[in-house]
Amino acid sequence: MENTKPVKELELYLIRHGQSMGNAGYDKDELTIKEENDPILTEKGLLQADLLGKYLSDVDFDVVYSSGLIRAICTADGLLRHQNSRKNLNILPLLSEVGISPEYDGLTLDEIKTYCKTAVLADGVSENAPRVCYYSFEKENEIFDSAGNVIRYFRDKYKNGEK
To answer: Does 82 qualify as catalytic in the annotation?
Structure first.
């Protein structure tokens, strides 16, 4: 019989943010650079975040991560509000999506905390690091490299069946 190591699984939930001004049909010409790059959730998006939290309230997450973008933070906060115990929201800039303008630096941690009081910087993210990562639409390899970095981050950090 072959000698094999048991596989330790990581249960990963990938959740897209609720409806935001950016995907609700707002005219981009009327938005500021901040609103265009980091739009807030609409009322519908806030409701979606709350319903998500209720739907997943029986899942006891070990840890919750988000990009440093408002729409993702507010969606994660909706999830966290329905957890049985208080959990931090770990801000991981690597989770930023493609298309963020290089002129947009993102929010400070204090600004992020106005949207989610339990927000902290993820392990390995320094206080001086940008809160968002810039990836262009044109460079497909940047997107794949980013996805690989996120996977490596989680694989290195979690090896005991965490959610």
So the answer is: no
Handedness of CA 146, 132, 51, 155 (dihedral sign): positive
Angle, CA 75 vertex, CA 71 and CA 77 arms, to 5°: 115
Nearest in space to 161 (alpha carbons), one of 63, 41, 56, 34: 63
pLDDT tens for 3-62 read 666 556 788 899 999 999 888 877 777 778 788 888 899 999 999 999 999 999 999 999
CA separation for the pair 49, 72 (Å, rounded): 10
**3-class DSSP state of 150:** helix
Q: Which of 35, 82, 97, 111 is catalytic?
A: 97
pTM for the structure as a whole = 0.87
Q: Give me the half-sphere count of Cα atoms (radius 13 Å) on the Cβ side of residue 20.
A: 18
Beta bridge pairs of residue 120: 90
Can 35 be counted among the known catalytic residues?
Answer: no
- The rounded distance, in Å, linking the Cα atoms of 16 and 136 is 20
